[in-house]
Amino acid sequence: MSNDTIYNPHVSVDCVIFGFDGEKLKLLLIERTISEQNELYNDKKLPGSIILADEDLDDAANRVLNELTGLKNIYLSQFHSFGNPRRTENPRDVLWLEKTTQLKIGRIVTVAYVAMIKIDRKIQFKSDQTSANWYDLNEVQKMNLAFDHADIINKGLEHIRHKSEIEPHLLFELLPRKFTITQLQTLYDTLHQTKSDVRNFRKKVVQWPYIVALDELEEGVPHRAARLYKYKK
Amino acid sequence: MSNDTIYNPHVSVDCVIFGFDGEKLKLLLIERTISEQNELYNDKKLPGSIILADEDLDDAANRVLNELTGLKNIYLSQFHSFGNPRRTENPRDVLWLEKTTQLKIGRIVTVAYVAMIKIDRKIQFKSDQTSANWYDLNEVQKMNLAFDHADIINKGLEHIRHKSEIEPHLLFELLPRKFTITQLQTLYDTLHQTKSDVRNFRKKVVQWPYIVALDELEEGVPHRAARLYKYKK
């Protein structure tokens, strides 16, 4: 081991931020505009950042999330690190990163986090330089994304799918505070890529001790208003 | 972000290697000898390495495991990355690392893996400079370890405890190829810090479809020889 610089990759965090609008699972992505030979090129990337000099990994992920959304008390969990030397093989990604960070970029090892946000929470997108938006997961899976962000998203999805099977309460991080059984089922089925029977699903979940029926119906819907439920810790 | 070097931590992998000798859960640690003011100081560390210039994270962990034990086809799984800036605050750790790697060491982000080894597999400890040995987990938890390796071990233990609940077949990565129900119970109870009732435990596990009773008894034991079982995938 002689060449010191070679062995010093940059380290970054990337956040796979899931949301659910009552019908579809969504991802919060940042639009990136790159000027290439006098033409503008657009694509999307995960919110992320190179870690600061004296910053722990969790702190870096919290900073990214807070700078972007202004939200606190968000479910955030480290799930995997990605360090393939070829993840920076696209010159477009490297040029963009060198321009935005003013750093000379070689290799980057990134530590990935999942976050879950209730889409009905008011998000104040803070950062001026970035344009963040929610995109349908289906749509995202057809997009050209920066770096290996498509792989990171797939692994993040696998992670919350797996984790919410063991800890079903995680589903309620994504649902609105007051939700219908149909919304719960839609989220469940989207995550697990299943199509549950409506009556069986309802029978099952109303028995969960942490689901409480409210004396309220949903409002402003074109169909017959359904009962609202809430999650009790 | 102006000072480039500050933002380039080193990246390493560390392996929490579990083994089970039929009675106790064990960890494979490396003894480290440091000369300090003409006195020799001894402690233990996890097997690990700074990643090589063109090496993916999984490849680095496999290299460490293979260089150390000569074994292939070992269960190895990334579980968490540790990047607290204070993990290199002990000058002893930094001096030792700079001496063994010939690198100038600042901050190190480490990607941690768990591995599971059947202790009855013949291990050819390969590395000349290191002395690797199995230590009882109980003993390890009282030791002074290098860096934040005590934290990494606790998190690794939590990981396999959690993971083997969902995927009980992982227990058989640790058990000998032919094992008794008592060994299985001891491993299970050690991992989950429980004390199962012998008869209930036996009743439960003989119903697992992947456990097969053999026409063989254990040999060379001072007590009545018990039936051997094997795991069928």
What does this structure look like?
2 copies of one chain form a homodimer. The longest helix of chain A is centred in the C-terminal third of the chain and has 18 residues, at 149-166. In chain A, a hairpin with a 4-residue loop joins strand 1 (10-20) and strand 2. With 233 residues, chain A is an alpha+beta fold. Chain A has 7 helices and 9 strands; from the N terminus they run ββββαβαββαααααββ. Chain A has 2 domains: 5-167, Nucleoside Triphosphate Pyrophosphohydrolase, CATH 3.90.79; 175-231, Winged helix-like DNA-binding domain superfamily/Winged helix DNA-binding domain (Arc Repressor Mutant, subunit A). In chain A, the strands form 2 sheets. In chain A, strands 1, 2, 3, 4, 5, 6 and 7 form a 7-stranded mixed beta sheet that branches. Chain A has a two-stranded antiparallel sheet with strand order 8-9. The N and C termini of chain A lie far apart (52 Å). The first copy, chain A, has helices spanning 57-69, 91-101, 137-140, 149-166, 171-174, 181-192, 198-205, and strands at residues 10-20, 25-36, 39-45, 48-50, 75-82, 108-118, 131-136, 211-217, 227-231. Residues 1-6 of chain A have low confidence and may be disordered.
Judging from the principal axes of the Cα atoms, what is the shape of chain A?
elongated
Q: What is the rounded distance between the termini of chain A?
A: 52 Å
Quote the CATH topology of the largest domain in chain A: Nucleoside Triphosphate Pyrophosphohydrolase
Helix-strand makeup class of chain A: alpha+beta
- Give the low-pLDDT segments of chain A: 1-6
CATH H-level superfamily title of the largest domain in chain A: Nucleoside Triphosphate Pyrophosphohydrolase
